[in-house]
Structures are given as C-alpha cells and as structure tokens.
Amino acid sequence: MFSFLQLLTALSAALLVSAVPAPSEKCCDTSAAVMNLPSNQTALVSPTTAPLYVALGVGVQNYSCSSTTLKYTSIGAVASLFDISCIDKTPAFANIQTTAFKLWDSVPASVTASLIGSKVAAPNLLGYHYFVVGPTGALVPKWDFTSTGKNAGNSSAYVIGAKVGDIASPTTPATNIDWLALNNASGSLASKIFRIDTVNGQPPTSCVAGSANISVKYTAKYYLY
Ligand SMILES: *[C@@H]1O[C@H](CO)[C@@H](O)[C@H](O)[C@H]1NC(C)=O
Ligand SMILES: *[C@@H]1O[C@H](CO)[C@@H](O)[C@H](O)[C@H]1NC(C)=O
Ligand SMILES: *[C@@H]1O[C@H](CO)[C@@H](O)[C@H](O)[C@H]1NC(C)=O
Ligand SMILES: *[C@@H]1O[C@H](CO)[C@@H](O)[C@H](O)[C@H]1NC(C)=O
Ligand SMILES: *[C@@H]1O[C@H](CO)[C@@H](O)[C@H](O)[C@H]1NC(C)=O
C-alpha cells in the first residue's frame, strides 16, 4: 500500500526539485533583506534597519463561535517559524508562503507544521509563535525562540507584541488574514514584528451558536527587527 509517508516523501521530492536553491554565499545574511509592503497604505511602515530574522510561519489560527454575533472570533494561533533568510535572493522566496500552504493544506491533521518547513527549503526552525495570557487577562501574541536553534537555552529570546498597524491582505482579504505591524511589549528578541504575505487563516463568515472551536491553517512571512 502507498502509505501517507511515501506520498509526502514523493510530494516533497517534487517540491525540493522546484523550490530548493543551491546554498549561496549570502546564506542567512539579513543585512540586505527588505520587506515588500504595498505602496498604497501607511499603516505598516518598514523600519530603516535590516531585519534580525526573516521567517516563514506555518500553523493555525484558532477561532471560537460567538453565540451573540454568530461570527467567529480569534482565540489565538500556533505556528512554527522557519528561517528563510537563507533563500531571500532566490526565485523560491517570493511565493514560499504559497508553496508551503499548498503542502500544509494537503496533509492530514496528524502531520505537524514542523515537517512542512523542512520540505520547502526552510529546514531551520527558529522558534514558535503562539498566544499567552497577558497582564490584562487578554491573549497576547508571543514569538518564542528560547528552545530552538542558536537561541536554545536563552530565556531572553522571546518577544510579546502589541499591534500598532493592520491592513487587509492586498490579495484575497476574505481568505487571507490581515498583514500586521506589532511593537515589542516585553521581551528582548526584537522591537518590531511584521506579519505579511499571508495565505489563508480567515474563518468562515458566520457560525451556528454552539459550534466547536475551529483551527484554520495559514502561512505567512514574519519579519523581526
Ligand atoms: C489552537 O488549536 C490547536 C489545535 O488545532 C491547539 O493545538 C492549540 O493549542 C490551540 N491554541 C490556542 C492558542 O488556542
Ligand atoms: C491597495 O492596492 C491593492 C491592489 O494592489 C488593493 O487590493 C487594495 O484595496 C488597495 N488598498 C487601499 C487601502 O487602497
Ligand atoms: C539572548 O537573546 C537575547 C534576545 O535575542 C539577546 O539580546 C542576547 O544577546 C542573547 N544572549 C546570548 C547569551 O546569546
Ligand atoms: C522590549 O520591551 C521591554 C519592556 O519594555 C524592554 O525591556 C526591552 O528592552 C525591549 N526590547 C527591545 C529589543 O526593544
Ligand atoms: C473554545 O475556546 C475558548 C477560548 O480558548 C475556551 O474557553 C472554550 O472552552 C473552547 N470551547 C470548546 C468547546 O472547546
């Protein structure tokens, strides 16, 4: 029988051929990396310094059905963040979020996000993005690099963000979650975080009271400054 793992291996072999560039001398150098932001907006302002990290996020956005509005409301997200600074001069970079999403969307729930990054030219796990309960009791977004890669064991390598800018996805906003700018609220990993180039993640437009919580798969690029 053709097992799921064989399928994934075949699929990823095909992806690897088309998506993985040869390592270049500029590998993992973020000094010339620039965010590609839409010109017709002012809510997201690119810093003038180079990013510290350029990451591909692969994960889920979680939602709960509000029984009063019959709309889904956000209850956080979980994503694995992979280093894509090594491939930012290659043709694969521009659409890596789409390449990753197609694979992520095609695998069953038993396949973790961690595996996806390694299949799309981004084998290095930088860390995780998830939500924690903040000082006011509300959920706040955290980027946590304390347990992985070169920051493993460094308890300072995290940042909690506070949103300062938000635009609808320039492509398919009904499907793709917003692009965001956040400032550092605590932690010393970065002072600014951007979520751009989002693919999917939006919930259905309405829900039936009493519906179960849902997780909607998404990918995005994250730039940390
Ligand atoms: C989101 O849902 C996933 C399961 O799909 C779960 O593992 C995770 O803990 C949830 N996270 C939050 C913040 O709700
Ligand atoms: C900016 O341009 C994109 C298309 O390039 C369009 O979809 C979007 O609505 C525009 N946004 C604003 C705020 O004008
Ligand atoms: C730990 O991480 C913080 C935030 O990224 C960084 O400023 C600090 O230099 C790191 N410490 C070590 C020992 O690498
Ligand atoms: C982030 O904010 C905390 C709390 O205000 C501060 O101690 C830290 O220095 C900031 N780090 C960066 C990198 O901006
Ligand atoms: C849905 O998520 C909310 C917020 O995290 C939680 O309070 C609630 O118990 C969850 N509902 C179900 C049915 O799991």
Fold blueprint:
Blueprint: H1 4-19, E1 53-65, E2 72-83, H2 96-106, H3 113-119, E3 125-133, E4 139-144, E5 158-167, E6 179-186, E7 192-200, E8 214-224
Antiparallel strand pairs: 1-2, 1-8, 2-3, 3-4, 4-5, 5-6, 6-7, 7-8
The structure holds 2-acetamido-2-deoxy-beta-D-glucopyranose (NAG) (5 copies).
Describe the fold and architecture.
The protein has 225 residues and is an alpha+beta fold. The chain has one domain (49-87, 100-224). 15% of the residues lie in helices and 35% in strands. The protein has helices at residues 4-19, 96-106, 113-119, and strands at residues 53-65, 72-83, 125-133, 139-144, 158-167, 179-186, 192-200, 214-224. Strands 1-2-3-4-5-6-7-8 form an eight-stranded antiparallel beta barrel. The radius of gyration is 18 Å and the shape is globular.
Global structural class: alpha+beta
Rg, nearest Å? 18 Å
Q: Describe the global form.
A: globular
- Write down the oligomeric state: single chain
Q: Number of DSSP helices?
A: 3
How is the largest sheet built, in terms of strand order? Answer: 1-2-3-4-5-6-7-8
How large is the share of residues in beta strands? 25-35%
What count of structural domains? 1
- Ligands (ions, cofactors included): 2-acetamido-2-deoxy-beta-D-glucopyranose
What is the N-to-C order of secondary-structure elements (H for helix, E for strand)? HEEHHEEEEEE
Average pLDDT, rounded to a whole number, is: 89
**Alpha carbon gap, first and last residue:** 48 Å
The parts where pLDDT drops under 50 for at least 5 residues are 10-26
Number of strands: 8
Kindly state the percentage of residues in helix.
10-25%
Biggest β-sheet, characterized? 8 strands, antiparallel, barrel
